[in-house]
Amino acid sequence: MAAIAANPRSDNLTGPLSASLVLHAGLVVLFIGSAIYSHQGDSWGGPGGAVTVGVVGSLPAVPMPRPEVETPSRVVDESKGLYKTEPQPKIDPPPDVTPIPKFEKNKLPKYVTRPSKILENPAPPPPNAIPYGGGGTPTVPYSSFAMGAGASTQAGMGFEGPGAGNFGARFSWYVEAVQRKVSSTWLQSTVDPSVQFAPRVVATFDILRDGTVTNIQVTKSSGNPSVDSSAVRAIRDASPMQQLPPAYSGSKVSVEFWFDFKR
Amino acid sequence: MRERKHRTRSREPNGGKLAPYKTNMTRKLAIIAILFMAALLLCAGNASAQDWFKTGTGLGVSKARVGVPEFALRQPIPPALEKTFHDVLWSDLEYCGVLELVSPSFYPAQMPSQPSEVQFAQWAAAPANVYMLAYGNLSGDAANLAASGYLSDVHNPQAPIALQKIYRGPASDAGARKLAHQFADDIVALLSGGSLGIAQTQIAYVSTRSGNKEIWAMDYDGQNQHQLTHLKSISLTPRWAPGADRIAFTCYVPFRGITRPEICLFSTVSDRLISFPRYVGSNSSPAWSPDGNQIAFMSSQNGDPEIYLTDANGGGLKRITFAAGVSTSPAWNPKTGKQIVFVSDRGGEPVLYLANSDGTDVQKLDMPDMGYVVDPSWSPNGQLLAFSWRRPSGNFDIYIMDIVNRQLVELTRDQGRNERPSWAPDGRHIVFESSRTGTKHIWSMLADGSRPRQLTFEGQNESPNWSPK
């Protein structure tokens, strides 16, 4: 034992040992470093695909009843919204002392403006002319709007066909609730932005007793697939509706719903 | 769809063509078969002759005009409760966003207390012009309160009553409020076509009025403000779980000897904290997935603040953003659960980024102006994003954006700092924090920016979150 230990040539391992230790430590550092480095690489998909955003006056996706004529909101004014509100202009108080203006006696105006013939002799307004600012939708009381017969021109409702007048007359509040719900789920943004106007789309669907909407069909196409599909989507998003009135005995109600698209 | 219709129609003539057969026997059989089919068709025709109606849209919809006369008293109840009931019912219906209440000065002289007493012609005529009438009576004793509520279509006296229910509760201020909230919610659901009312929802928020920033909750109209957490440190960014039974928030708690921001869960059912794993680094701004099974949050456990997903019970941690810079404030699309919007400063300024909920397909939402865009909140129908935006003009204001066509609307202006919007579950209301009175308080408004109303008045209050039901 002592003879082997005393042999300096065969068992002096400190040199190779330290060298291998350094080498292994270096390898470990390399491993960890590369792992950390690779995890801080680029994001998936990258930050590309940026989309531009525009400012508008109002958004239709808020499920609130929209008035027939939109009045611009002062708060959401689209043009001035991008800039800081202008500060109140400073108005200097009038000076206390001002020189008396000189009386210019012999100075005549250079140009004489002639009275305008058009403004002087205006054609009398027709007797049925609407005064300026008095146009817009007539302020009909809600009752006559709701029960009005002008179903073809207003977004009102009419009752026809088999069982006419039964459901619609007894549960007109339910009919209006359906109208309000579908209107709130019908979004302009689901229609091709190049479409400004589309003929009427007519769709039919059934409302089951628990309010589920089934059997959605487009019975009269507008000729524009994106408007048709937006109508179908609006009806689908409106499901479930309110449950059918408890006083109603049937198991389902069929609805014919029209959509007039105008941007 | 057209083809299908033609096919169903062409069945009848086909049925008629079954006749040409040669022998007598087969002819008789055929006749019997035809008769049978005709009978079947008749039956089917009878069955399908159910009620239907026709309606449409395109010109916008009016709000329903509703008259709400004061309830009659059947038995004497404390005047304070009666007043509470009427005030709460009126304010619920007035603030719901789909109804137009007719002013009581237009009402006829006689107030109905039950359907037989309604003078339909008077209510339908000018000046009231009421479309639906909500009325009823109150009764009760020392301990209980009952309200019989009716909703009638004024123009169809013969039609069945749209709603008749008896609401019962304890004879207390909270009881009277609850009755009024329930009746209001039923009316809103009926007249808006099944979208639920929000009169019984709650708002969680951060308040300093106990000395520390703790999580508080209140009714949607600012009543019943009460403290939820008692951690005596800092609690921030409360977020209701979809079932409204838990609240996730950022809490400052010690972990491995260091007090650091962590995610905490609070159960509103058992009124105490639920265990949730702690992580190193700082962890904040939790957000629930719409199914309530996952939580997205910001964590710097691996150095950079990035967004992580974890199951609501704490398992299955997964990192979903991988970009240099901070990524925080995630919000899920509540309709689909497939998209996440978050705030990141990877491009310089903090702005919104849209990504799939697994972190793929990251898109920057380019704004038409400079400035910080923070605190995104997704509307319940998944169509709109509300957020606060600090324009170069200096102030924070609330904006909403249509996520499909990227159009923007500004909801607040020149009214102090307005931050951290949160949508109500009906998609018609937004709650936010505003410094317009000088100190930070919670305010709510309709989602078109109209009718702001202040909900808190004590201490400093911030970071509101509307309960999903």
Task: Provide a concise account of the structure shown.
Chain A is flat.
Describe the 3D structure.
The complex is a heterodimer of chains A (263) and B (469). With 263 residues, chain A is an alpha+beta fold. Helices cover 29% and strands 14% of the residues of chain A. Chain A has a 3-stranded antiparallel sheet, with helices on one face. In chain A, a hairpin with a 4-residue loop joins strand 4 (197-208) and strand 5 (213-220). The longest helix of chain A is centred in the first third of the chain and has 26 residues, at 14-39. With 469 residues, chain B is an alpha+beta fold. Chain B has 2 domains: 64-191, Rossmann fold (3-Layer(aba) Sandwich), CATH 3.40.50.10070; 202-466, 6 Propeller (Neuraminidase). Chain B has 6 helices and 31 strands. In chain B, strands 2, 3, 4, 5, 6 and 7 form a 6-stranded mixed sheet that branches. In chain B, strands 10-9-8-31 form a 4-stranded antiparallel sheet, with no helix packed on it. In chain B, strands 11-12-13-14 form a 4-stranded antiparallel sheet, with no helix packed on it. In chain B, a hairpin with a 5-residue loop joins strand 24 (384-390) and strand 25. In chain B, helix 4 packs parallel to helix 6 (173-191). The model of chain B is unreliable at 1-22 and 41-49 (pLDDT under 50). At the A-B interface, strand 1, strand 2, helix 5, strand 3 and helix 6 of A face helix 1, strand 1, helix 6, strand 22 and strand 25 of B.
Query: What portion of residues of chain B is helical?
Result: 10-25%
Q: Which regions of chain A are unreliable across 5 or more consecutive residues at pLDDT < 50?
A: 45-49, 137-164
What's the CATH architecture of the domain at 163-189 and 197-263 in chain A?
2-Layer Sandwich
Oligomer: heterodimer
Residue ranges of chain B: pLDDT <50 for 5 or more in a row? Answer: 1-22, 41-49
Helix-strand category of chain B: alpha+beta
- CATH architecture label name of the largest domain in chain B: 6 Propeller
Q: Whole-Å distance between the termini of chain A?
A: 102 Å
Main CATH class of the largest domain in chain B: Mainly Beta
The main pleated sheet of chain A reads as: 3 strands, antiparallel
Can you tell me the overall shape of chain A?
flat
CATH class of the domain at 163-189 and 197-263 in chain A: Alpha Beta
Strand order of the largest sheet of chain A: 5-4-6
- The total tally of domains of chain B equals 2
Rg calc of chain A:
39 Å
Number of strands of chain B: 31
Structural class of chain A: alpha+beta
Number of helices of chain A: 8
Largest sheet of chain B: 6 strands, mixed
Q: Helix amount of chain A, in percent?
A: 25-40%
Note the beta-strand portion of chain A.
5-15%
